[in-house]
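Predict the 3D structure for this chain.
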Amino acid sequence: TGGEGAVGDEWMPTARAIETAGPHGPVHAFAYAPTHPEVVAPDGERPPYVVLVHGGPTSHVGPAPSARTAFFTSRGIGVLDVNYGGSTGYGRAYRERLSGQWGVVDVDDVAAAASALADAGLADPARLAIAGGSAGGWTVLAAVTRTEVFAAGISRYGVGDARALAADTHDFEARYLDGLIGPLPEAEDVYIERSPLSRPERFRVPLLILQGSEDRVVPPAQAEAIRDALAARGVPHAYVLYEGEGHGFRSAETVVDALQRELGFLGAVFGFDTPGVPPLELS
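Done. Predicted structure below.
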């Protein structure tokens, strides 16, 4: 039952806890296979997967499917929620793995988890996408430029330039970055080396960039610089600027539109139908 718009239990996927070996130690994640009460994939067909990267970055996702997860899994797309190194819930050493290593450990861990899922025959290795917002968007942008694992990326108000983040945010965020990357100006070379925008030639896979016009944490200039880098290299992409939205989308209209655009993007890139949602046109 439930109110209008409620999702029935038959549509909700079941979390499968997975642990895989990564270059920095074990990586924990939850996998959600495509789930539909009436439709199953043909025998032998591996589904596409989207790897969701939580923000924080020192946050945590639990084994409970969200409406966002069900939106994808009900349409034939698996979801992998990764608690990369730095996430809480797995002890101090796991949480401290990200210290000074933001842009390295998080990237290696999401790549290892996605690769393990494909190696196990549960996901199509040619149709792995990665999506995240804010700090998760940083990991998305770093993963598509520093690894060969992902065939597409979705960045919502993601950080492309860590030095700009330090300059644009208040003192608390700047001190927070000291622990994640290093103190400025001493660690400026590290900020440059880690930032995806420092190496625009590494952008090579299709990207969807979603951005709020009033974002004070990650201003539109960062998203526009990524868009320009993609355009300069002829990499398929779409850039959507939501007027009046800040860092994190608030209005229901924006949230729904962004989710539909993500689905349309994945359909366009991976070549599958998205009934009710038009394929997203890429530049």
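The two ends are 42 Å apart (CA to CA).
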